[in-house]
Write a structure and sequence with these properties.
The complex is a heterodimer. Chain A is of the alpha+beta class. Chain A has two domains: about 5-160, Butyryl-CoA Dehydrogenase, subunit A, domain 3; about 175-245, no CATH class. Chain A is built from nine helices and four strands; from the N terminus they run H-E-E-E-H-H-E-H-H-H-H-H-H. Chain B has a single domain (about 1-150), classed as Up-down Bundle (Butyryl-CoA Dehydrogenase, subunit A, domain 3). Chain B has six helices and four strands; from the N terminus they run αβββαααβαα. In chain B, strands 3-2-1-4 form a four-stranded antiparallel β-sheet. In chain B, strand 1 and strand 2 (about 35-40) form a beta hairpin. In chain B, helix 3 packs antiparallel against helix 4 (about 90-115) and helix 4 (about 90-115) runs antiparallel to helix 5 (about 135-150). The chains are: A alpha+beta, B alpha+beta.
């Protein structure tokens, strides 16, 4: 902790100790005194936190919660005086002590003022009543103020200015990162969507086949208007492509099969001889080369006579339904 | 989850503190020449049976409800600002302290009741004091508020458990997995 924070903590600890002592004094000293000089009656009443003495003395003992509050504040002062592992516990104890003191002392104050209000209205004509809200109440109130001040001072206050600076710095860094990555991504992304657009124009399957062939040639020669240009509308273009991509039907007449080494391939059907259909053009024998030779023999299904046993409806090739 | 439970407890404590201050804290029956029964809440004294007391002694009563209502308001305030980035620390400070303030206030009311109930132990008591529903409601409010105040604090996180060793086959998902369905 920085020196300022340490000073603050020490001042808070001292304030807690002072508050505890003041509360203890308030518990011991009288809270309220009254002297009645009525015709035919002279009496005094002294109310303390542990009860009352004198005529009509029947006040409850408020000592226990007040003493508990004073003890909590004293313990908190001892715990936060040095920076130890138990300092967080001391901080909580400080809050607890000040809070219990506030609740109890407030209610005691209300009780005592009510007592004095009752006494005033019970004065008979010709009688004299001298009331004193005594030192004990003042000490309880002062103890609460000082103790609460201490409880606030020993907390770990967030240092607002530095943290805000730090946040601004971090936000600026993130913004910079986003900007540079956008700049780097734009050309590469535009290039990658060009073949998609070319494929999308062709509606019928025969032409799709033709489009597949043209795709192998560099797209720059046939679709010059689709060149990625570093224009301000690049973002819009990209978004449009992204939308089209999702709408596009997944049409693929050349299957891409990834085979993992330890996966059973029994259910991967070898395309029958009638597939692709005649209208798709001359069959390309190299597309049937599954599994590839480098994978070696794959089982009895790969034997020639096993392949001939497979009979499937050529109109409804597997995977199309 | 813990935070949500704490917020719920704090709010329940605030509501119960208000409700408890409106309910009778204790009842007093005076065995005088004429029957007199009183109901004392944190705000006023009500006559149940007997003549309406002329003396101001009955009309004026200790306003224990003031600190109780203040406590409820502060609890709600703490809950409202708990998620705030700027005032979150203050809200947690309040959430830790205000329930104990409620405890202190209710404790004093309890002490007053206990002192009055002492009279019941005499052989021939003039007054008979019985606890009211408000006392129990306030006690429950204290428990709930303290629990909520503890739950919403930021405790240091416990030591993270070591990552469990992955078991079974390593499965890689390929980026265009949909294409497989076309063939198989």
């Amino acid at each position: 902790m920085n020196p300022a924070g340490m000073n603050r903590r020490l001042i808070g600890a001292v304030a807690l100790a002072v508050g505890a002592v003041a509360t203890a004094g308030g518990v011991l000293l009288p809270l309220y005194q009254e002297t009645r000089t009525f015709p035919g009656q002279n009496s005094t009443l002294v109310v303390t936190a542990f009860g009352s003495t004198g005529t009509g003395a029947s006040t409850p003992g408020f000592g226990v919660p007040l003493v508990l509050a004073a003890l909590l504040m004293l313990v908190a002062a001892a715990l936060v005086f040095r920076e130890t592992p138990s300092t967080p516990l001391g901080r909580m104890t400080a809050i607890a002590g000040a809070a219990v003191l506030l609740g109890a002392a407030w209610s005691v104050y209300l009780f005592v003022t009510n007592l004095s209000a009752i006494a005033i209205v019970s004065v008979p004509p010709g009688g004299q009543l001298v009331q004193t809200l005594d030192l004990g109440l003042m000490m309880l109130g002062g103890g609460w103020v000082v103790g609460t001040l201490g409880a606030v001072l020993v907390q770990e206050l967030p240092e607002a200015d530095t943290s805000r600076e730090e946040w601004r710095e971090r936000a600026e860094r993130v913004r910079e990162t986003v900007r540079t990555s956008e700049r780097a991504r734009v050309p590469e992304r535009a290039e990658s969507v060009v073949p998609d657009r070319a494929r999308e124009e062709i509606p019928v399957p025969q032409e799709a086949r033709a489009a597949e062939r043209t795709r192998k040639t560099p797209p720059a020669t046939e679709t010059p208007w689709e060149q990625p240009k570093p224009s301000p509308s690049g973002g819009k273009r990209r978004r449009r492509h992204a939308l089209r991509e999702s709408d596009e039907e997944p049409e693929n007449d050349e299957a891409i099969i990834y085979q993992l080494p330890d996966v059973a391939v029994d259910d991967v059907a070898t395309p029958p001889l009638g597939y692709p259909a005649a209208e798709f053009g001359p069959p390309e024998p190299e597309s049937y080369g599954f599994p590839p030779e480098e994978f070696g023999p794959q089982g009895p299904e790969d034997e020639p006579e096993a392949t001939t046993r497979v009979t499937l409806d050529p109109v409804d090739p597997p995977g199309r339904s | 989850m813990r935070q949500r439970l704490g917020v719920f407890s704090l709010l329940a404590g605030a509501v119960l503190a208000l409700v408890g201050s409106l309910l009778p804290v204790y009842r007093q029956a005076y065995r005088l020449a004429e029957q007199l029964e009183l109901e004392v809440t944190a705000w006023n004294v009500r006559t149940i049976t007997g003549p309406r007391p002329e003396s101001d002694e009955f009309r004026s009563s200790v306003q224990y409800g003031v600190p109780l209502a203040a406590t409820a308001a502060l609890l709600v305030l703490a809950v409202l600002f708990l998620r705030s980035r700027r005032f979150g620390a203050v809200a947690r400070f309040l959430a830790a302290g205000v329930p104990l303030m409620l405890v202190g206030a209710v404790w004093v009311v309890l002490q007053v009741y206990l002192r009055l109930a002492e009279g019941n132990r005499r052989v021939d008591p003039i007054t008979l004091t019985t606890p009211g529903l408000g006392l129990w409601v306030l006690a429950v409010a204290c428990v709930l508020a303290v629990a909520g105040g503890v739950l919403v604090q930021h405790w240091p996180a416990p030591e993270p458990a070591p990552e469990p060793e992955p078991e079974g086959a390593v499965v890689h998902r390929l980026p265009d997995a949909e294409d497989h369905e076309q063939v198989s």
